[in-house]
Q: What sequence folds into this?
């Protein structure tokens, strides 16, 4: 699968607002790839992400990096002693003591100065270089599906390490490159203050070797799970019941007065509701020569609404008091 195909699947399946951005750390001695422009004014690393996700391909040597912190952390230049010491964090009143500032600095992932010559950025479908990571700007639901996609092929849960400090450089580039694991960032003070990440957005960075299996898994999830979740298939009319005054104490699961109505005329007899019900409430029964679903143990119903959401004919209705 090429980067154009992966971009299309990511954008279509997740309804991404912004293009995924390919980022490569240019190694010493490596040739500058063609068709990348050096921006006419220096940009912060977080700003260069914003420009790339709007469709531009960027070559960013140290002179194009406006954030001295970011370019030091990314190993493009030697970090200034004022930043390295932690003094500036106190001056900006972002941290309370030098000891805490130094701890934050010493635990932050960094590349050694001189490790790289430039950052290269491009929308993934235009990348003419092999990215180290692919960074997406998204909202939490989209990030959740990328996590589900990774679990889909690996069975693993995700373990993120992030911070509100120096996050778009340290947590989106260095952390995933060092660990080989995807990572998130909520942006940092600098990124939130100087780039156009919206209040409801965050970033997620995927090391390139993980990208194709994640995209393949996303294709599968996009067939059923993602559209169902977006249609809120299990959202039942409980909201107006929560907080209402009850005349008597709430009964347990077995004690609720639940009515499960299944329209036998609409029922296809496919047994989906029976298969999905986690509480074995439903069974298929023969009626006039055909199979229809019946609620045989309504008192065991947990009101999860799975059967209602899965029934292709919307033949099931549940009421309770
Ligand atoms: S899912 Fe709907 S159509 Fe299928 S058996 Fe159950 S009630 Fe009938
Ligand atoms: S609401 Fe949940 S527990 Fe109740 S019958 Fe449907 S699937 Fe089973």
A:
């Amino acid at each position: 699968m090429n980067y154009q195909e992966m971009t299309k699947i990511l954008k279509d399946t997740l309804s991404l607002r912004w293009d995924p951005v390919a980022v490569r750390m240019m190694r010493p001695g490596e040739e500058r790839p063609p068709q990348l422009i050096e921006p006419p004014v220096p940009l912060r690393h977080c700003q260069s992400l914003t420009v790339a996700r709007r469709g531009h391909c960027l070559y960013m040597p140290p002179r194009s990096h406006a954030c001295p912190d970011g370019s030091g952390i990314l190993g493009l230049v030697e970090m200034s002693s004022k930043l390295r010491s932690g003094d500036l964090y106190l001056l900006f009143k972002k941290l309370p003591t030098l000891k805490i500032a130094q701890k934050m600095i010493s635990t932050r992932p960094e590349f050694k100065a001189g490790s790289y010559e430039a950052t290269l950025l491009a929308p993934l479908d235009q990348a003419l270089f092999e990215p180290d990571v692919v960074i997406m700007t998204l909202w939490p639901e989209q990030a959740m599906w990328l996590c589900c996609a990774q679990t889909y092929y690996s069975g693993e849960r995700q373990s993120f390490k992030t911070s509100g400090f120096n996050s778009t450089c340290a947590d989106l580039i260095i952390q995933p490159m060092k660990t080989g694991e995807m990572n998130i960032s909520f942006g940092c003070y600098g990124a939130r203050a100087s780039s156009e990440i919206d209040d409801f957005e965050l970033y997620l960075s995927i090391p390139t070797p993980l990208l194709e299996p994640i995209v393949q898994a996303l294709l599968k999830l996009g067939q059923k799970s993602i559209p169902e979740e977006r249609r809120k298939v299990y959202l039942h009319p409980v909201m107006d019941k929560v907080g209402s005054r009850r005349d008597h104490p709430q009964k347990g699961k077995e004690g609720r007065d639940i009515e499960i109505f299944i329209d036998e005329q609409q029922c296809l007899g496919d047994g989906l509701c029976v298969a999905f019900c986690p509480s074995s409430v439903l069974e298929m029964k023969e009626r006039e020569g055909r199979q229809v679903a019946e609620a045989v143990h309504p008192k065991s119903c947990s009101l999860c609404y799975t059967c209602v959401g899965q029934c292709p004919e919307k033949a099931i209705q549940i009421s309770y008091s």
In short: The chain has two domains: 3-227, 255-320. Residues 3-227 form one domain.
